[in-house]
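Sample entry (100 residues):
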Amino acid sequence: MPDTIYGGRMMRHLVIILAAISATAFIPTSVDAQYDSSRFCEGYSSGYSSGYKSAAGLTSEPVTPICPTQPMKSPSDPTDDFEHGLAVGRIHGMMEGMKP
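Predicted structure, serialized as tokens:
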């Protein structure tokens, strides 16, 4: 009987390991994914700057924060990653520019 319990534990561990390996297969690591995220970050930086300057009434460039992880796109978001970053960055910049 102890052999079947041990075998069950081994099988459970094996299933967990295989599930973890399978899940990592869906993490984007291709050059295209890196390019897309850099396009998002370029747009974010530009959008943050314009939003901050607009809300704060400044003409000088603000210090742009580190680019966040690109959020999931809703159907109303732009399909282009640069445009998506521009929209997200502008909102974040305006929120920061309105702070006292």
